[in-house]
Design a protein that fits this description.
By secondary structure, the protein is mainly α. It contains eight helices and no strands. The radius of gyration is 17 Å and the shape is globular. 26% of the residues are buried. The mean pLDDT is 93.
Length: 174
């Protein structure tokens, strides 16, 4: 919570000067939401997202996420192949995708570029279950998330062929 207070003061004092570090602030806020220990911490972080949106003159939450989601996802490029259930970045991605709503549909290729290798049957079974749960959550509201741009049909074959079918093969101990 002290970190959130520092960010709040920074945005209050810096106002438009914060624009230079807005991506870092966004990344920190999403990370705090992902790793929260209490609901009050998440509530404070959501308020800071709103404040960041105002500082950046974003008309909507989606505009803020449209600006910052892709760079945050791209920051995972060097590490996602090594993720496991306990990797903080996995939690950050999970939170980012849930929070970003319709923006996911705009960056579907980048999202799939991480999900496909992370759902490889050779990966940690518990992590794969968490990712399947995330996919299920996103598909429950597909029109407001993964299919917000009407492009999910294009990647649905990849989802079935590269994610679902390989994970349906029985393996001893998994």
């Amino acid at each position: 919570q002290q970190l959130l207070k520092c960010l709040e003061v920074m945005m209050d004092i810096g106002q438009s000067d914060v624009m230079d570090v807005s991506q870092i602030i966004f990344n920190v806020i999403i990370t705090v939401i992902a790793l929260k220990q209490t609901d009050s911490t998440a509530d404070e972080a959501h308020l800071l997202l709103k404040k960041l949106s105002e500082v950046e003159d974003c008309a909507t939450k989606e505009d803020l996420f449209r600006k910052h989601t892709k760079p945050l996802i791209e920051s995972f490029e060097d590490s996602y192949v090594m993720w496991n259930t306990h990797t903080p970045e996995r939690l950050v991605l999970d939170t980012l995708l849930v929070e970003s709503g319709p923006v996911i549909g705009e960056i579907l290729d980048e999202v799939m570029g991480i999900l496909v290798p992370c759902l490889n049957p050779k990966k940690d079974a518990e992590m794969r279950v968490k990712f399947f749960s995330l996919i299920s959550h996103l598909l429950m509201n597909a029109k407001e998330t993964v299919d917000s741009q009407g492009k999910f049909g294009d990647v649905s074959i990849t989802v079935v062929k590269d994610i679902i079918i390989p994970n349906m093969v029985w393996q001893a101990g998994s």
